[in-house]
Amino acid sequence: KTSTMGKEKTKVNRKVNKSKIKVSVPKVPQQEEGNQLFREGKIVPAIKKYTEALKTAADSPLLYSNRSACYLQQKQWKQAFEDARKACELDPSLVKGWYRQAVALRRMSHFREARAAIRKAVKVSARKGVPADVEEEKQLIEKTIKDGCTIKPLGWV
């Protein structure tokens, strides 16, 4: 015990295995339906299913991330970015969320912001190994910046 201006503080040693802590949000039926539709290439119906699912599970980072993937397929970059950003707000360790932010930002020519997002994806995935698609996106963004592409400021975020 230590004393601080008459107030006692007790030090507690706790060991927490952070690798076993997971954000767990139960799946809703529309999520699996959306996943199946996405696998079948039925992107617009998948978006609708994920949107329905978010009405009952608004705190699910995977639903936002999955809907972001759909928006990327539809080339709806801003929506893809917004959903990926929300997914990462809910779960900052979600590699796919950071990756999808980077892709959407690159497609909107916001290269510096894309680089920051892909670097975050690399950082959070480093313990398990960086996925190939993340590494490829990182190289593409770095090359684009190195080649001097016009960089648009990100005023709407």
Structure write-up:
This protein is mainly alpha-helical. It contains seven helices and two strands; from the N terminus they run ββααααααα. It has helices spanning 29-39, 43-56, 61-73, 77-90, 95-107, 111-125, 132-146; strands at residues 2-4, 7-9. Strands 1-2 form a two-stranded antiparallel sheet. β1 and β2 (7-9) form a beta hairpin. α3 runs parallel beside α5, α5 (95-107) packs parallel to α7 (132-146) and α6 (111-125) packs antiparallel against α7.
List the helices and strands and how they pair.
Elements: E1 2-4, E2 7-9, H1 29-39, H2 43-56, H3 61-73, H4 77-90, H5 95-107, H6 111-125, H7 132-146
Antiparallel strand pairs: 1-2
Helix pairs in contact: 1-2, 2-3, 3-4, 3-5, 4-5, 5-6, 5-7, 6-7
Main attributes of the structure:
disordered N terminus; 2 strands; 157 residues; 7 helices; two-stranded antiparallel sheet; single chain
